[in-house]
Structure formats: structure tokens, C-alpha cells
């Protein structure tokens, strides 16, 4: 297993994926938080709580959760690129035990996703503090509360990366796998949120569990205000984390089991 893990790290850093991930993490973290902070949440339409309130800080940081599909895409591309470029055969020849190899991939990309999440969170925190200093605003959240929120966001990024790896291992076709990830987060889950009756299940979907984990319920609250539907129930942060871990476990099992039962072609 150690040999497989070292090999996966070597393969990962021989590509441009870490560089693109670094750029995406900084842009995702600092981008939305910085723009909203400069505009001022209270100046948005409709107005939102300002940065001098805990709610305003939570929204400014929580917006980065809207881009958690990005680490999922990195996980998907990482696994499907080997099938696309037909290097997976050589990889399996180097390490014939597919279960060991796929377990190593999951471990490496879990670390990759966690590092991505930490960079994204640090970028968001840096942007938030910078904007607060420029606008001479005292943040409405303590450093401890902010660190807790950012840590949850980093953990969510790691889980989403594993979800992406699982989708990529199941589908193998890169374009189809990327389409599934984007289609779910941009189309299917928002549709499920507005379907009468079905929207009550939102709390158990990846997006709802993430909202609970990161304490970012802005989307659900906005939907409730603009429609006549009742506000969907939300899980506790711990339960939301457990639901996400459950999805990651399913993705991990799929990522290992599917290639064991199929040919490489």
C-alpha cells in the first residue's frame, strides 16, 4: 500500500492538476468572499446582514460552499483521465492488486481534497480580514468561530473530492462524468429543492448536508422567501457531516468495487 500511495503522489504531481487546483482554491475562496465583502452584504439586493454580524460573516464565508463542485470535478477528472489517455492499464500492471491501487487513489485524493479545502478556506479568511480592514469594519465572529467554520468547509471539500473520484470510477468516460457532476449540482439538486413534497428530502441530499455542516442555509432561506413552500428542515452540523461521510463511503466502495468487476477497455 505504501508503494501504491507514493506512486499516486508521484503521478499526481507529474501533472498540472495541483497547479490548477491551487489557482481554483484561491479564486474560489477569495473571489466570492472578497467581492461580497467589498460590495457590503448590506448593500446587496436584497440586503443581507453586514460583516459586523455573525450571520453576515457566515454568508460571506459560506458562499464558497457554492463552489464545492470544483474539487468534485478534480476528483472526477483525476480518475477518468487515466481511462481517457489509456494509462490505467500500465498503472494496473505496475500494481496488479486493483483494490490496493484504488484504495491508494482514494487516500491520495482525500488528502488532495483536504489541502484544496484548507487553501480555499485560508484564502476566504484572508479576503474577509482584508476587506474588513479596508472598510474599517469589525467582524461579527470570533477567530475561533471563524476557524471552526473554515475547517468544516475544508472537510466538505475533501469529501466532495472523494465523491468525484467515485463518480469517475463508475462512469470512466470523462465528458459524461463531468456532465453528471455539473448536471447534479447545477440542475438536479436545485430542481429537487423546488418540487413540492420532495424538497423535504433536501436535508439528506449532499447539498443539504453540506449546508448543515457549514451552517450556510442562505439558498434554502431564499427559496422559502420567494416561494410558498415551507422551509425545509435542516440537520445539525454533526448529522450533516455524517450524511456526507455516508455518501463518501458509498463513493469509495463504488470506486474500488466497479473496476474490480470490469475490463479496462
From TrEMBL:
Signal peptide: none annotated. The chain crosses the membrane at residues 20-39, 59-79, 106-129, 149-170, 175-195, 238-260. It comes from the Bacteria. Keywords: Membrane, Transmembrane, Transmembrane helix. This is ABC-2 family transporter. It comes from Rhodococcus artemisiae.
Amino acid at each position: 500500500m505504501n508503494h501504491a500511495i507514493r506512486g499516486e503522489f508521484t503521478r499526481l504531481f507529474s501533472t498540472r492538476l495541483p497547479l490548477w487546483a491551487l489557482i481554483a482554491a484561491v479564486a474560489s475562496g477569495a473571489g466570492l468572499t472578497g467581492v461580497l465583502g467589498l460590495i457590503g452584504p448590506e448593500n446587496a439586493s436584497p440586503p443581507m446582514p453586514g460583516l459586523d454580524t455573525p450571520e453576515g460573516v457566515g454568508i460571506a464565508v459560506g458562499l464558497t460552499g457554492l463552489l464545492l463542485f470544483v474539487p468534485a470535478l478534480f476528483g472526477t477528472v483525476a480518475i477518468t483521465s487515466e481511462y481517457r489517455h489509456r494509462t490505467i492499464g500500465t498503472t494496473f500492471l505496475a500494481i496488479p492488486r486493483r483494490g490496493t491501487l484504488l484504495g491508494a487513489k482514494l487516500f491520495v485524493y482525500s488528502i488532495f481534497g483536504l489541502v484544496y479545502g484548507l487553501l480555499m478556506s485560508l484564502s476566504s479568511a484572508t479576503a474577509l480580514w482584508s476587506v474588513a480592514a479596508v472598510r474599517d469594519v469589525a467582524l461579527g465572529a470570533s477567530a475561533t468561530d471563524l476557524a471552526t467554520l473554515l475547517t468544516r468547509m475544508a472537510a466538505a471539500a475533501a469529501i466532495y473530492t472523494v465523491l468525484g473520484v467515485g463518480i469517475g470510477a463508475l462512469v470512466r468516460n470523462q465528458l459524461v462524468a463531468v456532465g453528471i457532476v455539473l448536471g447534479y449540482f447545477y440542475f438536479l439538486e436545485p430542481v429537487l429543492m423546488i418540487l413540492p413534497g420532495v424538497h423535504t428530502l433536501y436535508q439528506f441530499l449532499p447539498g443539504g448536508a453540506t449546508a448543515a455542516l457549514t451552517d450556510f442555509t442562505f439558498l434554502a432561506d431564499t427559496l422559502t422567501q420567494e416561494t410558498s413552500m415551507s422551509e425545509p428542515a435542516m440537520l445539525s452540523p454533526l448529522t450533516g457531516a455524517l450524511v456526507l461521510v455516508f455518501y463518501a463511503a458509498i463513493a469509495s466502495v463504488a470506486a474500488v468495487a466497479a473496476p474490480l468487476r470490469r475490463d479496462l477497455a
